[in-house]
Write a structure and sequence with these properties.
Layout lengths: L2 E4 L7 H12 L1 H15 L10 E3 L9 E6 L2 E8 L2 E9 L7 H13 L2 E3 L8
Parallel strand pairs: 1-5
Antiparallel strand pairs: 1-6, 2-3, 3-4, 4-5
Length: 123
Protein backbone atom coordinates (compact mmCIF):
# COMPACT_ATOMS: atom_id res chain seq x y z
CA UNK A 1 0.00 0.00 0.00
CA UNK A 2 1.32 3.41 -0.96
CA UNK A 3 0.09 6.95 -1.52
CA UNK A 4 1.24 8.90 -4.57
CA UNK A 5 0.82 12.48 -5.79
CA UNK A 6 0.69 13.76 -9.35
CA UNK A 7 3.69 15.76 -10.61
CA UNK A 8 3.15 18.02 -13.64
CA UNK A 9 5.59 18.57 -16.52
CA UNK A 10 7.17 21.55 -14.76
CA UNK A 11 7.96 19.51 -11.65
CA UNK A 12 5.16 21.08 -9.62
CA UNK A 13 2.89 19.00 -7.42
CA UNK A 14 -0.59 20.57 -7.45
CA UNK A 15 -1.79 18.59 -4.42
CA UNK A 16 1.03 19.96 -2.26
CA UNK A 17 0.34 23.52 -3.42
CA UNK A 18 -3.36 23.11 -2.56
CA UNK A 19 -2.59 21.41 0.79
CA UNK A 20 -0.16 24.17 1.80
CA UNK A 21 -2.74 26.87 0.98
CA UNK A 22 -5.41 25.01 2.93
CA UNK A 23 -3.09 24.60 5.94
CA UNK A 24 -2.71 28.38 6.13
CA UNK A 25 -6.24 29.36 5.09
CA UNK A 26 -8.51 26.71 6.64
CA UNK A 27 -6.89 24.63 9.42
CA UNK A 28 -10.03 22.55 10.04
CA UNK A 29 -10.06 21.36 6.41
CA UNK A 30 -6.31 20.71 6.62
CA UNK A 31 -6.90 18.45 9.66
CA UNK A 32 -9.54 16.56 7.67
CA UNK A 33 -7.04 16.09 4.84
CA UNK A 34 -4.49 14.75 7.32
CA UNK A 35 -7.12 12.38 8.78
CA UNK A 36 -7.96 11.14 5.29
CA UNK A 37 -4.27 10.50 4.53
CA UNK A 38 -3.96 8.58 7.81
CA UNK A 39 -6.97 6.42 6.86
CA UNK A 40 -5.41 5.73 3.47
CA UNK A 41 -2.16 4.65 5.14
CA UNK A 42 -4.05 2.31 7.45
CA UNK A 43 -6.22 0.99 4.59
CA UNK A 44 -9.25 2.29 6.55
CA UNK A 45 -10.64 4.79 4.06
CA UNK A 46 -14.21 3.74 3.24
CA UNK A 47 -14.79 4.18 -0.48
CA UNK A 48 -18.45 4.96 0.17
CA UNK A 49 -20.63 7.91 1.03
CA UNK A 50 -20.91 10.24 2.86
CA UNK A 51 -17.15 11.03 2.82
CA UNK A 52 -16.18 9.44 -0.51
CA UNK A 53 -18.09 9.27 -3.78
CA UNK A 54 -17.20 7.22 -6.86
CA UNK A 55 -16.98 9.35 -9.99
CA UNK A 56 -18.79 7.69 -12.87
CA UNK A 57 -20.13 10.49 -14.99
CA UNK A 58 -18.31 10.97 -18.31
CA UNK A 59 -14.97 9.71 -17.01
CA UNK A 60 -13.84 6.24 -18.09
CA UNK A 61 -11.85 5.47 -14.94
CA UNK A 62 -13.59 2.91 -12.75
CA UNK A 63 -11.63 3.59 -9.59
CA UNK A 64 -11.83 7.38 -9.57
CA UNK A 65 -13.27 8.93 -6.42
CA UNK A 66 -13.78 12.32 -4.85
CA UNK A 67 -13.62 13.20 -1.19
CA UNK A 68 -15.86 15.93 0.13
CA UNK A 69 -13.97 18.31 2.40
CA UNK A 70 -16.38 21.11 3.18
CA UNK A 71 -16.37 23.40 0.15
CA UNK A 72 -13.40 21.54 -1.38
CA UNK A 73 -13.17 18.34 -3.40
CA UNK A 74 -10.18 16.03 -3.72
CA UNK A 75 -10.08 13.64 -6.67
CA UNK A 76 -8.07 10.43 -6.36
CA UNK A 77 -7.62 6.97 -7.83
CA UNK A 78 -7.71 3.80 -5.73
CA UNK A 79 -5.87 0.94 -7.40
CA UNK A 80 -4.86 -2.32 -5.74
CA UNK A 81 -4.51 -0.77 -2.30
CA UNK A 82 -2.57 2.23 -3.63
CA UNK A 83 -3.96 5.76 -3.72
CA UNK A 84 -3.14 8.44 -6.29
CA UNK A 85 -3.97 12.00 -5.16
CA UNK A 86 -4.75 13.82 -8.38
CA UNK A 87 -6.52 17.13 -8.09
CA UNK A 88 -8.20 19.33 -5.49
CA UNK A 89 -10.45 22.29 -6.10
CA UNK A 90 -12.98 24.57 -4.44
CA UNK A 91 -16.54 23.56 -5.18
CA UNK A 92 -18.56 26.37 -6.75
CA UNK A 93 -21.30 24.48 -8.62
CA UNK A 94 -23.67 21.58 -7.98
CA UNK A 95 -21.80 19.22 -10.33
CA UNK A 96 -18.09 18.74 -10.89
CA UNK A 97 -17.20 21.29 -13.59
CA UNK A 98 -15.98 20.01 -16.96
CA UNK A 99 -12.71 21.92 -16.50
CA UNK A 100 -11.96 19.95 -13.32
CA UNK A 101 -12.84 16.65 -15.03
CA UNK A 102 -10.48 17.51 -17.89
CA UNK A 103 -7.63 18.25 -15.47
CA UNK A 104 -8.16 14.91 -13.72
CA UNK A 105 -8.26 13.00 -17.02
CA UNK A 106 -5.01 14.63 -18.13
CA UNK A 107 -3.31 13.83 -14.82
CA UNK A 108 -4.35 10.18 -14.99
CA UNK A 109 -3.16 9.78 -18.58
CA UNK A 110 0.28 11.28 -17.91
CA UNK A 111 1.19 8.69 -15.23
CA UNK A 112 3.60 11.06 -13.47
CA UNK A 113 3.46 10.21 -9.77
CA UNK A 114 5.76 10.57 -6.78
CA UNK A 115 5.45 9.02 -3.30
CA UNK A 116 3.40 11.20 -0.94
CA UNK A 117 5.27 13.19 1.71
CA UNK A 118 3.83 14.87 4.78
CA UNK A 119 4.21 18.65 5.01
CA UNK A 120 7.21 18.39 7.31
CA UNK A 121 8.93 16.02 4.87
CA UNK A 122 8.61 18.18 1.74
CA UNK A 123 9.59 21.57 3.18
Amino acid sequence: MAIFVYEDNRGKIPFYEWRDKIAAKDPSIYRKVQDMIAMMRQQNLPLTRPLVKRMLLRLPYRDLYKIRLGKYRLMFLADGGDYYLLHAFRKTTQQTPEKERHIVSREIERHQYLPYQDMTENH
